[in-house]
Write a structure and sequence with these properties.
By secondary structure, the protein is mainly α. The protein has 6 helices and no strands.
């Protein structure tokens, strides 16, 4: 799986554990597909800080998953559901 998609999955699961500022930066970078420069201009925060924040956020999300393994457990749960309608409902619940 691509790193970007994986980080978005982790954000769906653990995003609420991040600060509001971290959530805002993550969403601008990954959901709105803004560049570091664009985020910097829109938030009046230096481009280097935005780059460091993206790295810190990614590290935190990976740390949360390595410690709690909620994303991994959700995938395991989905893999054992055989009923397609139930599986789709479970995916919607897991995806928030």
């Amino acid at each position: 799986m691509k790193e970007r998609e994986y980080l978005i999955e982790l954000y769906i699961t653990y995003g609420s554990l991040l600060t509001d500022k971290q959530q805002d930066i993550f969403e601008k970078y990954f959901y709105e597909d803004l560049s570091l420069s664009e985020i910097s201009e829109n938030t009046n925060i230096s481009k280097s800080y935005i780059g460091k924040a993206i790295k810190t956020i990614s590290d935190k999300l990976n740390y949360y998953e390595s410690s709690l393994k909620i994303n991994e457990k959700n995938k395991s749960l989905l893999s054992i559901i055989t009923d397609s309608k139930l599986k789709e409902k479970a995916k919607k619940i897991i995806s928030g």
